[in-house]
Design brief:
Length: about 950
Amino acid sequence: MKRVNLLGGASVSIWAMMVAGAAAAQTVQSSPSQETTAETQAAPEDEAGNQIVVIGSRVANRTVSDSPVPIDVISSSALQASGTGELNKTLNQLVPSFNFPQPSIADGSDVTRPATLRGLNPDQTLVLLNGKRRHVSALLNINGTVGRGAAAVDMNMIPALAIERIEVLRDGASSQYGSDAIAGVINVQLKTADSGGRAQVSYGKYVTTLDGVSDFDGLVGGQPALDATDSRYLQANSSGERKARDGAYTTFGVNVGLPIGDGGFFNFTGEYRDRNFTNRQGYDLRPNYVRPTTTTFDPREATFNRLDFRYGDAKTEDFNFLINTGLPLGSAEFYAFATYGHRDGLSAANFRQQSAATNRDFSVLTPATTPTNGNFVGLTPDGYLPKIQSNIDDMSATSGIRAEIAGFKGDFSLGFGRNELNYRTEDSVNVSFGPQSQRSFDAGGLAFSQILANADLSRQFDAGLAGPLSFAFGGEYRHEIYQIRPGDPQSYQTGPLFQATRTTTAGNCTALGGSFPTGAGATGLCTFPGRAAAAGAQGFGGLPASARTNVDRDSFAGYVEFDADLFTGLTATAAGRYEHYSDFGDTVNGKLALRYEFVEGFAIRGSVSNGFRAPSLHQQFFTTTSTNFLAGVPVDVSTVPVSSPVARALGSQPLDPEKSFNLSGGVTLNPFRGFNVTVDYFRIKIKDRIVLSENLGAAGVGTAAQNTAVQAVLAGNGFSNVGAARFFINGLDTTTQGVDAVATYRADLGGLGAWNFSAAYNYTQNKIDERLNNLGSLAQIPSLVLFGRVEGIRFERGQPRTKVVLATDTKIAGVGLSARTTRYGSVISPETTAPLGANAASLTALGPDDQVLRPKWITDFSLSYELQGVQLTLGVDNAFDVYPDRRPFGLRPTSVGGSYPATYQFLPYSGFSPFGFNGRFLYARAAINF
C-alpha cells in the first residue's frame, strides 16, 4: 500500500505549508469564526436547550431550542460518566435513535462494530470532527450483522476525554454536508481549553450469571454417554447457572490544555484502553473426539474443556492520541487537529472439533482411501480454535485558516484521513497442506484514505427582515483511495492434499492413484476421497491474489445556504448543493426547514429535503474468494465487484447512488424555566438502496433447482469453477419512519441539590416497499430473488423499533449520583431454515429457528465523590444482570418437528441483541482535574 503511505507523507507536507500560509495571513482583518464563536459562547450544561451548536445551520449562535431541526447535545461530563469509555457504547446508552449491537464470531466486525442512527445503515450517517468530514473505516461489514454491506466511521478511535460535546443532528442534511447525511449528522466538537486538564484511570469487569445457561458439573456417571432425548449431545450434570468473571477493562487517559502564542491554545489527549475478552458460551456437550467404535467413546471426553469457543467481546488494546490547536494570527486564526489511533484486536472463529474433517491429516491416506473413523489421524490432539488478529492504524490531520475576506467570514481547510486494517489468522491450519501447513497466516489487509479540501464563506446582511439574513456558500473537493492487499499464499491456496474429481479412463485414474468405481452405480468419474482436504486458513481465509485492488475517485461539490428570521417568530433555512463524482456523475439536492414560535415557549418546526449517498469504493470494488467443495470439485465462493466478468454473467448493473426524500415535523415546548420538550416525526423514503445480493450459484442459498440453473449460466459464460458469487446491487426501495420525543427538567431543590431529569423515546419502523429484483440474465429462473427472506427480516426487524431512556443525576456537597434505565424494544433474530408448510417460499414469514427477542430494561447507576479536584467514582452498568432471551435448543416442539441448530445449545444468545449479552459490569474510576 505504498501509494497510501506516500499520501500520508504528503499530508504532513501539506499541513506544514498551511502553517506557513497562516503566517502570511496575519495582515488579514477578520472577526472570530463561527466555530470559535460557538465554542466560546456555549451555554452552561445546566441550561438545557441553550447550548449553541454548529450543525443544522451555518448561523452563528444558533441554540438547540432555536433550531428548526432536532439536535441532541451530549456533554463531556455525560461522556466521561460511561463505565467503558467506548464512544459507541456511550451513545447507545444516551441517544434513543442510536443503535449499537455487539455481534460475536463475525470476523472484523467483532473489533470494529457498526452503529446506526434512526435504523438506517452506518454509511447513511455522516460523522464530522470539528465540523469536518471524518474518514470511514477500511472494513466492509459483509457478515450477517446489523450494518451488513456498509463501511462505518470507527468512532471508538476518538478518545472521550478529548471531546467537549457531541451534536447529533436527527435530520437529512445531504444538501448541507454532502453524501451519507441521509439519517443525520454526528458532529464531535473537541476541547479548546488553554489551561488545566484531567487525568483518569478506570478499571472494571463483568460479574455476571448467564441467564438460562446451565453450569457444568461433569458427565453423568463420569463417563460419556449420549443424551437419550437428543443424541447430538452427551449426558451431563448441571448445578445452577453458569457464572462469569471476565472482560477486565482498564483505561488510562489524560487531557491537557496549554496556552501558545497570544491567545492560542494547544489541547492534547492521550488514552490507553485494554479490554480482555468475554465468553458467554454454554458448555459444548457435543462429542468432541473420534469414536473408536459405534458403541464406545474416547475417554478424553470426560476431561475435555467444554468452554471451547469464545462468544462475546473480542480482546482489544487501543492507543489513541488527539491534538487540537488554534492560534490567532492578527485578525485571522490558524487551527489544526490531528488524531492517531492503533488497535490490536483478537477475536475467535468457530471451534474446530478434534473429530472434524477440518482437523484430519489427509497425508496419511492414499488418494483412493475413503476417510473413516478407523483411519482418522488428527492434525491437533484436541481440536483448535482459530483466532483472527486485527491490527488497525487510524490517522488524520486537518489544518485551516479562518479569516475575513471582503466582509465574509472565511474558513479554508485541508485534511487527510486514513484507516488501515491488517489481518492475521492465528492458531489455525490450511488442511489441504496437512502437517506442512503454517499455523499463523498473514491474511491480507484493507486500506481507505481520504484527502479533503473545504472552502466556506458566510456573511449576514440586513434585508429588512425580523433578523439578519445569513448567507453562506462554499465548496468541497474529496479524493478517496481504496486498497486491498492479498495475504500469504497458504492463507488462501489449495494445497496438495486436495485433488479434484475428474472425467478420465479407468487406467489413467489408477495411474493417478484415484478411485474409479465400476459396475452398478458407476459414474465414470475418477474420485480422490483421500484427497478431500479443505483449502485456505481455517477461521479466516486470506484475501487471495486476485483480490488485489488499488482504486480511487474524486468528487467536487458546491453549496449555498440562506437562513433568516422572516418575521418575528418564524425562522427559515434553505440550502442547495451540487455534487459531481468522477465515477457516477452529478446530483443536486435541496432542503427547506422552518420553525415558528407562536408564543414564547411553544413552537412548531419541520423540514423537507432530498438527499443522496454515493456508492462507496468498498461497495464497488471489494472482492474476496474462498474455496469450497461440491461433490469433490473445488469451487470459488466469491464476493465480487459489480464490474467483474462473473458479476456481469449473473446480470449485475453499475451501482447508482441512493436517493432519499426526507420529511419531518415536530413541536418544541419550554413552558417554564428548566423544562423542555421536543417531539418530532420523521419519514425517510430511499430509492435504489445498495445491498449485498444473496449467494448465487451451485453453492448458493436458493433451492436446488435454482442453484443448478444459476450454475448453468455461470458455466455457459466460462465460469464453471465459480460455485457461488455475490455482489452489490441497487436492491431495495424502502421507507423509514418514526417519532423522537425528548423531555428534560432541571429542579433546584436547595439543600437536596440540583436535579436533572430526562426522558427520551424513539420509535423507528423500517419497511421494504419493493425488492428491485433486476435479475438480468437470470430472469428465466423461476422465483429467484436477489435479496432474500433472512436479509429482509434483518433489515426490517433486526433493530428495536422502540427505545426509551429515563435518567436522572444530581450533585450534593461533592457527592454525585446518577441513574439511568433504558428499554430496548423487541427484535427478530433470523436464521436460514425456511418457513414451514404453505409459507415455505415466503419472504416475510418466520422460520422455525427464527427468534423473537422480547423487550428488556437495562439499568445503570453511579456514585461519585469529589474533593479538591479529585473525583472517585463507583458504578455498575446493567445492574440487574439482564440478558436477552436465551436461544431455544434441543428438539423443536412436536407441532413443528425437527431440531434446533446444534450450536444453540452452547451459543445461547443472539448477536442481534441491541444491548449485547455480557451481563453486569462493575467499575471504579479515579480522576484528577487540574
